[in-house]
Write a structure and sequence with these properties.
heterotrimer; A alpha/beta; B alpha/beta; C mainly alpha; A: alpha/beta; Rossmann fold; 6-stranded mixed β-sheet; 10 helices
Chain lengths: ~230, ~650, ~290
């Protein structure tokens, strides 16, 4: 049985129907990429998992338990952590406080020092306020917040968006390390190449439902699919 | 049964309600004493009812909750009382009352200038603060004129008459009739106001202020007008209080006066005009009635407070609102979106809740596709284009937007010729939405210019841009959720026909030439003709999207911006909407942002591609498909990894 | 020109009033910033503190226990208010939230009036506060100086709570982005309850502390409610430093103006509020666009 099983969920943003009977599954230790153009529903899928958007029907089973409809804080306590697209760093708190806050409700929280080993840059900036961090540093902190919780399932929503290629390389390294360590990750990305380089399996979402499922290798052999759903 | 028929009959005939009101006012002195209600209490109820007419226009119809109406009640009351007691005007009660009202309205302009810059809770808070300032003014620095803590005594009774015939009003029922006359006139005026085009705009404002603004109405001016009207009603009511009591009390300007008005209005029912009157009747009438029961008399305010809390929690629409719901019309209850995300948005940005519904695909009508396109186009107005000689409808030069240190858009220059359907595409983070907002006038560029038919519209704002002939339809529906389909469409049409502000408060909607024609034509074009009287909350999602486009069309734009018109649609709805867009092209320039590539390539004649805030490429759909740079942009540069 | 002793005395007065206002407004602004609710019952909670303190004083004869009693009384009422009614309003339009707190404020006030009557209750100055103290050439009522010191200590404690404790960190993060706090596994609704409780407790504390100075009547909270609004406007919504600075400024404006014209002392404060609204609508420490 997979760690995460989504079965035919329908999610709405207000009354805009965004996800139509969407189903997918993620096994433990898998890294799965969710690809698709804007507005396809990738972000909404992650938000539906985290409880920020409540799917109207269908089931979302995490470790066998249906978590659909639970409030975000309960879902986080079960071990799922969303790293949002906008990062949502607390600007009035410094780096260390952001990390401390994230670790509060996690029973298996890492120590801050362990996080700093992973992200030396954050250690240098530990006393800097959130608003003073660069885009790449904020993204690092956002990922670190999920990591410090020892999350069982990390949801990365467009982690590379708006960042310079060099920073993207840095973060990709971090993501690869996480994947190698066996973390379960769902990554939503528009940067197809980056996503494919760390994913073991790929879903493509178009207009709110899954239109392709396979491995990166399989996908790369089908350029017409990439062009149809991802390209132009 | 009778009520229902009566309501339906009086629907288009405002004088029916007014006549009934007149009759009730006239016969009350015969009936009320039988139930033990005195003339004094009746007069007092009318005064609060009059005060409440203005408050209901401000809160019930425009949606502005003010906790500071006592400021105007006091201003009108004290100016009038001062004139009557300290100057030689004691024989001119009517004139003094009028001057008091004007003074209150002037105060309304000043207070409105400061308070209307904010909305919602903040607005409520500062109206309260300003009213307290008036209270302090009354008590201390101006006490020479207001009598300070003692108030002004000796306010005379009015004398009515013409030429040599005079009649001195005495306290009791004859004073009641004097006050009732004011109430009646006040009611007729208020009634006409809410039925007028001006009133319709107020209701749109209450419902969805940003959309009302984008449709071409000057929200600021309408709000100020409503505020001043409410101040005026407060002023005259205050003056009448002084006459009733022969005394102008200082607590007329106190916070609890404003509070009492709010409570009465809510208990009675907001948005009904008679709500405050009913609330006052319950408050004052019952209080008078029960005054002989000592236990209740002492706890009266407590009982009212508890009733108030219960009403807000369970019967938000108040007594009259509940009556209306049961007997008369289906009042659509705007449900509230239940997601955490939207709860947060509500908490922070005061966005009205959008009902969550399921799309019922079976409700999309089969006969959607029209073949007789030409006829509708003839009826639907399009604003004549400006005189740009080079045939360019919309263009921008070096358009740039920076937010702090982040560049959202950098140096975009493009130009869209008349009649073209231009597509704008780009991967996520390309800056499409910021760019679109700059074109629409919602966001002021950091640098660069936007030209509409050759005229520089940079930084003019959505209202001006709308009046100049460019409209936008939104990715997330921005409808007037408490109104019907036809009422929704009337809002942009009213802006088109009346300009950004017109105080036509006493006109009826039928007196706006061309209104119905334009609404009909728009309804036909978006195929909602059989849904005109349906409240928005009952529409299916696809119908709401069509109404959304309809709102932009009804403005008679010659340039139409469409932000993801296909968002959230099923495949079938997409096909239908693409057809719709093809139909509305004639005579217009369309600019479409979309992610649905199939639809985009079917519709667009020319496409501009944005990436990372800049213009990457432009060309025909074929050219774009074959452009390697564009492919790379979407597929994320495979070679780099 | 006013004399130096008068000037200094008024400066001192302004500080005393201002600090009290800061304390009351701090509670209001934290609730407003975190929950998005303007608590119109805040003045009533201030009043409940005074009455609860009065009752405690009757029972025990100790002013210190009265202070604790006041805090606890206001806390209990505040928590009840939040749990029974206010928490069901978080998803409702903001006007409804403000209306219901207004209604609750009236209910609380009227209940107190029913139980205790409308005549002022005597809360005498405690024995350690009697008399006049001399500060240089100034003579000042001892209790008012002590009150000022106590309020200052309370503000410092609040500061420590907000900026040096884990709970305070959560509250500050919640003011900024309560959804993200939610997503990080923290039950925000408990945070809201806590914030409401802190706000109520500070209002009650201020109420009983001020009771020896001001007549304890059911309506005593109203004036302070409006003043605290003005402070929030000046200081900025959701800002603790804003409440402190705004409160002191407000106190000084009233005090200083009364040197020249006692009639206009409060009016001046409102006038300055109006100017600030026009020129810098978010307040001194507020965030632009935040309502």
């Amino acid at each position: 049985m997979s760690l995460l099983e989504i079965d035919k969920i329908n999610s709405y943003y207000g009354d805009s129907h965004v996800l139509f009977d969407l189903s997918m599954h993620v096994g433990e230790h898998e890294v799965v990429a969710l690809l698709g153009r804007n507005g396809a529903g990738k972000s909404t899928t992650l938000k539906s998992l985290m409880g920020a958007v409540k799917p109207q029907d269908g089931t979302v089973k995490f470790d066998g338990e249906d978590i659909r409809g639970l409030p975000p804080y309960e879902i986080a306590q079960l071990g799922i952590q969303l790293v949002p697209e906008e990062r949502r760093i607390f600007g009035s708190l410094n780096v260390e406080e952001n990390l401390q806050l994230a670790s509060l409700s996690a029973p298996n929280a890492w120590t801050i020092d362990r996080i700093y080993e992973y992200f030396p840059r954050l250690k240098e900036r530990r006393r800097s306020r959130g608003t003073d961090l660069s885009g790449g540093e904020q993204q690092m902190l956002a990922i670190a917040r999920a990591l410090i919780r020892d999350a069982r399932l990390i949801l990365l929503d467009e982690p590379f968006e708006g960042l310079a290629p060099i920073i993207v390389q840095d973060l990709l390294g971090v993501a690869r390390q996480l994947a190698e360590e066996g973390r379960t990750i769902i990554i939503v990305e528009q940067n197809v190449a980056a996503a494919l380089s760390i994913a073991q399996r790929v879903y493509i979402i178009n207009n709110g439902h899954v239109v392709y499922e396979g491995t990166p290798a399989d996908l790369q052999e089908r350029p017409e699919i990439m062009h149809e759903y991802l390209g132009v | 049964m009778i009520l229902r028929r009566l309501a339906r009959y009086s629907g288009g005939r405002p004088w029916v309600a007014e006549l009934i009101t007149l009759i009730v006012l006239l016969i009350s002195p015969l009936v009320l004493p039988l139930v033990g209600v005195s003339a004094d209490v009746s007069s007092r109820i009318l005064i609060w009812g009059l005060f409440g007419l203005g408050f209901d226009i401000l809160f019930g119809y425009t949606g502005l909750l003010s906790f500071g109406q006592a400021a105007f009640f006091g201003t009108g009351g004290f100016v009038s009382a001062f004139l009557l007691t300290q100057t030689g005007m004691q024989n001119d009660v009517f004139l003094s009352l009028m001057i008091g009202m004007v003074a209150a309205m002037a105060a309304g302009v000043v207070v409105g200038f400061f308070t209307l810059r904010r909305s919602g809770i903040y607005f409520a808070m500062i109206t309260l603060a300003f009213a307290e300032m008036f209270h302090f003014l009354e008590l201390s620095p101006l006490s020479a004129w207001t009598g300070g803590e003692n108030g002004l005594t000796g306010v005379p009774m009015p004398i009515v008459g013409i030429e040599s015939w005079h009649f001195q009003i005495a306290s009791g029922w004859s004073l009641y009739y004097y006050i009732a006359a004011f109430f009646f006139v006040g009611y007729v005026i208020a009634h006409r106001i809410v039925l007028s085009p001006f009133g319709q705009v107020l209701m749109a404002l209450r419902d969805n202020t940003p959309r009302a603004l984008a449709t071409g109405h000057s929200v600021r001016k309408y709000k100020l007008a409503a505020f001043v009207i409410a101040a005026g009603y407060g002023g005259i009511a205050g003056g009448l209080l002084g006459v009733l009591q022969s005394y102008m009390p200082p607590d007329a300007v106190a916070f609890h006066t404003s509070g009492q008005l709010v409570m009465q209005g809510i208990i009675g029912g907001a948005g009904t005009l008679f709500g405050p009157l009913v609330g006052a009747a319950l408050w004052l009438g019952m209080q008078d009635f029960l005054q002989d029961v000592p236990a209740i008399a002492a706890a009266w305010m407590l009982i009212l407070g508890v009733v108030f809390v219960i009403l807000i929690t369970a019967f938000r629409q108040g007594v009259l609102g509940a009556v209306r719901q049961i007997f008369v019309a289906r009042v659509p209850e705007a449900a509230h979106a239940k997601t955490e995300l939207s709860a947060e948005v509500t908490r922070r940005h005061r966005v009205a809740g959008v009902p969550d519904e399921h799309t019922n695909m079976d409700e999309v009508p089969d006969h959607f596709i029209r073949s007789d396109v030409g006829e509708h186009q003839r009826d639907l107005m399009i604003v004549p284009k400006g005189a740009a000689a080079d045939g360019v409808a919309l263009s921008c030069t070096h358009l740039t937007k920076h937010y702090g240190g982040i560049s959202a858009n950098e140096d975009i220059t493009l130009s869209i010729p008349e009649g073209q359907l231009r597509g704008i595409i780009g991967p996520n983070g390309a800056g499409k939405s910021t760019f679109f907002k700059m074109l629409a006038g919602e966001v002021v560029p950091t640098s660069g210019h936007v030209y509409l038919h050759g005229a520089d519209v940079t930084g003019l704002g959505v209202t001006a841009v709308s009046q100049l002939g460019m409209s936008k339809s939104y990715q997330i529906n921005e409808l007037f959720s408490k109104l019907t389909v036809a009422q929704n469409l009337s809002i942009p049409v009213l802006a088109r026909l009346r300009g950004e502000f017109r105080p036509d408060m006493l006109k009826s909607m039928h007196q706006v030439p061309g209104l119905h024609g334009q609404i009909e034509a728009t309804l036909e074009l978006v195929n909602l003709e059989n849904r005109t009287e349906v409240p928005v909350t009952e529409l299916a999602y696809g119908e709401k999207r069509r109404l959304e486009i309809g709102l932009a069309l009804a403005n008679a734009p010659n340039v139409l911006l469409l932000d993801e018109p296909l968002a959230g649609m099923s495949p079938r709805e997409r096909a239908d909407t693409v057809q719709l867009l093809q139909q509305i092209r004639a005579g217009r320039t369309l600019v479409v942002v979309e992610h649905d590539m199939d639809a985009m390539f079917e519709l667009a004649e020319y496409i501009s591609v944005l990436q990372e805030g800049r213009l990457l490429a432009e060309g025909t759909p074929e050219e774009i498909k074959n452009d390697q740079r564009v492919q790379d942009a979407y597929l994320g540069g495979m070679e780099e990894v | 020109m006013p004399s130096l002793p008068l000037f200094l005395s008024q400066l001192f007065n302004g500080l005393a009033t201002g600090l009290l206002l800061s304390l009351i407004s701090a509670g209001l602004t934290i609730i407003y910033g975190t929950l998005g609710v303007l608590n119109l019952a805040h003045g009533a909670l201030f009043m409940v503190g005074a009455y609860a303190g009065f009752v405690a004083l009757q029972w025990t004869g100790s002013f210190v226990l009265a202070i604790i009693g006041g805090m606890v009384g206001a806390l209990v009422v505040g928590l009840l208010m939040e749990r029974v009614i206010v928490r069901y309003y978080y998803q409702r339009p903001p006007e409804d939230q403000i209306l219901v707190t207004f209604g609750i404020g009236i209910v609380i006030t009227e209940l107190v009036r029913l139980v205790f009557g409308g005549i002022a209750k005597p809360v005498p100055i405690p024995s350690w506060g009697e008399g006049i103290t001399r500060l240089g050439f100034l003579f000042y009522p001892t209790y008012r100086i002590e009150m000022m010191a106590i309020v200052a200590v309370a503000l410092v404690l609040l500061y420590i709570l907000l900026y040096k404790t884990r709970i305070g960190m959560i509250v500050r993060a919640g003011i900024e982005d309560s959804l993200m706090v939610n997503m990080l596994g923290i039950n925000v609704y408990r945070v809201f309850l806590l914030v409401f409780g802190i706000g109520a407790m500070t209002a009650g504390f201020a109420g009983i502390l001020n009771a020896p100075v001001l007549a304890v009547t059911p309506d005593m909270g109203e004036a302070f409610l409006v003043m605290s609004f003005v402070v929030v406007v000046i200081g900025g919504v959701g800002s603790f430093p804003g409440a402190i600075v705004g409160g002191i400024i407000a106190g000084e404006i009233i005090s200083m103006t009364s040197m020249f014209s006692s009639a206009y002392s409060h009016v001046m404060l409102f006038a300055i509020m109006a100017v600030l609204l026009a020129v810098r609508p978010q307040g001194l420490f507020g965030i632009e666009g935040r309502e």
